[in-house]
C-alpha cells in the first residue's frame, strides 16, 4: 500500500511541477527570445524546441528515478522518500533554468559587443 501510494504521490506532483514550470517558462521565455532573435517565427520554433527538450529531459528523469525507488514501509518513510525525489526534480529544474538564462545573457552580451 505504501509503495503504490508513494509512487502515485510522486508521479502526480512531479508531473504537475514539470508541466507547470515548463508552460510558464515557454510563455514568459518567448519575450527574452524575441529580444535575442529578431525573427518571430524562428523565435517561436526555438521556444517550442526548448519546451520539448525540457519535457523529455525531466519526464525521462522522473521515469528513471521510479526505477530506483526504495521499499516503503511506513508513512514517515513515504514522506521522506517522496520529498527527496521531488527535491531532485526541483534541483534539476532550477539548474536548467539557470543554464538557459546564463546562455541567453552571454549570447546577448556577445551580440552587443559585435555590434
TrEMBL record:
Q: Please indicate which superkingdom the organism of origin belongs to.
A: Bacteria
Which keywords fit this entry according to its UniProt record? Membrane, Transmembrane, Transmembrane helix
Span-the-membrane segments of this chain are: 6-26, 46-66, 86-106
Protein name per Swiss-Prot or TrEMBL? Uncharacterized protein
Amino acid at each position: 500500500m505504501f509503495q503504490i501510494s508513494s509512487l502515485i504521490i510522486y508521479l502526480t506532483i512531479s508531473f504537475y511541477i514539470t508541466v507547470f514550470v515548463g508552460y510558464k517558462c515557454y510563455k514568459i521565455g518567448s519575450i527574452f527570445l524575441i529580444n535575442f532573435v529578431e525573427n518571430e517565427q524562428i523565435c517561436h520554433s526555438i521556444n517550442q524546441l526548448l519546451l520539448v527538450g525540457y519535457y523529455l529531459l525531466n519526464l525521462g528523469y522522473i521515469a528513471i528515478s521510479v526505477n530506483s525507488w526504495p521499499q516503503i514501509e511506513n508513512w514517515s518513510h513515504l514522506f521522506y522518500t517522496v520529498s527527496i525525489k521531488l527535491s531532485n526534480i526541483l534541483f534539476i529544474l532550477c539548474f536548467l533554468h539557470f543554464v538557459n538564462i546564463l546562455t541567453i545573457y552571454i549570447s546577448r552580451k556577445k551580440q552587443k559587443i559585435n555590434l
